[in-house]
RNA sequence: GCCCCCGUAGCUCAGUGGAUAGAGCAGCGGCCUUCUAAUCCGCUUGUCGUAGGUUCGAUUCCUACCGGGGGCACCA
């Protein structure tokens, strides 16, 4: 019996009880199945599943919660897979399943394999997920790396729920930051000091040297403005290529790298502005062209074409958003750092100005910043000052798996502290090893089982009665719900926390229950059935790590 | 001044209205002739920032305040 079936049964019982109890003239409760949720109690004494529904409906029915609970309990007890039901505390209903019914899950998981945990929440939905989008003015730093890890994992989670996801990187190659970058590289080449508003990192010199080596001609012979253009175009390409390669090495690949420049060149920006003008949301003032975002809740109107004729940054967003919509994306997700949260108002206003629904067609996910600490003291990261910690630094220190895992296991709402010293030393503190070790252990057990003549030729789930077994089964059952929740809330860290929990239950089970008989003891159906549970656990950990983009090693 | 995020064990952090608030790390003490000891077991620590409110029930929702971080351009 699946949790869904059990909660449907409970829902039916709730309806029966409320029909029987309510006065003829009283309003119906209007509950749906979703209101009748089953919890997996933390305390195993409270059964395999628990419901607080009696507490919720007691008042409208004018009855005591315990009386309602008792009636529901009687109905549940009659179900075939339910072993026992009790009413506890103020009116909780604690349900215990037959061991066979609970244990059947092990076989289900093994048979579903990679598909276990996937759902259909977003079946048929096209989602565009834009993340990282760091400017190509320097190596990708820790802030961007966090979104690379979280965004890629979120994409995987959404795909697991049936969505068609396009990972997209918006490449800002149009604005004045690029000019600063070009001037900085040029200055380095000429041996001049870094411009006041330029970038001063050591990588600037490297880029200058590489550009000189790659340029087919004599840069020194060019006039200064042409020199700058050479350093701009080749330098940006170099950065762009490097960023792509580094992200690839980190396991993050984008489907689309979208160039801001192309929006201006293709006329997409002009088209978007024309469209908004037709809709009556454009006005002119002080020599500039504005979008009246205040109509849609923004705290001020926004300039989209400056009085000098240059498009403001947001104009690219107008064209870009329209382009995404024309490409058929129902949901457009954009991940931004907390330093960009002020964009939400204007972006949502823009979405609404186009006639779309903010929060549905456009969703902006804000993630908090990464703080770097050294000797317990904060280190400020700045591309300008050249004090940056890059993707490479992270991977060199701890590797891809531990790096991704440490970035994705915290809520994006929390600022992340990363201690540069700890990063290099105490790698065992990373819970990823705890989880990976559990997975390696399931593989080792499976290998040894094969060598010892334990196979999966029998499956008798009613034998899985040890406390550590029902606890493990209980947590394995949660997986599909966790994936759905992570997708809905856009919070992939839930997957990490969950598999840590699975690893814990598995290790404790391993300690208590043998899959392979000791010494000369015969192989029994209990051993064979436990092998199913072992393999099921490995499968769930593997699936979970897969959603995080972290390897599931068979040996450690 | 306004907006967003955070405040939970010594540290880093989970916990989108439920029962006795959890994990990892750190500390102390136990288990290897037994499927991998990167595991497991035991001990120890909490005004869930403060004060109100809603609720049968609040770490969770609402309000105010305190503390930390970030943001409020014809920059991108």
From TrEMBL:
HAMAP family listed in its UniProt record: Arg_tRNA_synth (MF_00123)
Listed PROSITE patterns: AA_TRNA_LIGASE_I (PS00178)
Top-rank EC class of the record's enzyme: ligase
Pfam family, one: tRNA-synt_1d
Keyword hit for Hydrolase: no
UniProt subunit comment: Monomer.
GO molecular function: arginine-tRNA ligase activity; ATP binding
Residue intervals of the Arginyl tRNA synthetase N-terminal domain: 11-97
Keyword Nucleotidyltransferase: no
Residue numbers covered by motif 'HIGH' region: 134-144
Span of domain DALR anticodon binding: 435-556
Family: Belongs to the class-I aminoacyl-tRNA synthetase family.
GO process terms (BP): arginyl-tRNA aminoacylation
Source domain of life: Bacteria
NCBIfam families: argS
Annotated compartments: Cytoplasm
InterPro entries, alphabetized: aa-tRNA-synth_I_CS, Arg-tRNA-ligase, Arg-tRNA-synth_N, Arg-tRNA-synth_N_sf, ArgRS_core, DALR_anticod-bd, Rossmann-like_a/b/a_fold, tRNAsynth_Ia_anticodon-bd
Transmembrane segments: none
Enzyme Commission number: 6.1.1.19
Protein name (record): Arginine--tRNA ligase
Keywords on record: Aminoacyl-tRNA synthetase, ATP-binding, Cytoplasm, Ligase, Nucleotide-binding, Protein biosynthesis
Catalytic activity: tRNA(Arg) + L-arginine + ATP = L-arginyl-tRNA(Arg) + AMP + diphosphate
